[in-house]
Design brief:
Structural class: alpha+beta
Number of helices: 5
Order of helices and strands: HHHEEEEHHE
Strand content: 25-35%
Shape: globular
Length: 106
Amino acid sequence: MPGVFEALPSLVNGNASLVRRGRYCSTTVLVEAGETAWLVSVHAGRVERVERGPFLMRDWSFAVRASAEAWRRFWEPLPAPGYHDLFAMAKAGHARIEGDLRHGEE
């Protein structure tokens, strides 16, 4: 599991279309896989940094929390229904999305 999160910068930043779509996104996301926490810092659609926790008093905009098993199923080449995207995982109860999801909205 750690390898996937550590590979995020090259996976995201190497995809010009994905970076272009996220060009207005600058935020820090807390991702938890079971007991392991990761902070993913994004600036203008590019992943600038991925740090492995534990963290004490760190700032983040929103969090995505799921069991290590749920993340493993999410990263399968052809994920099963309920694991095929983050919102499906949340709807099925496999993940929680929480925090300031509307930051910056007027």
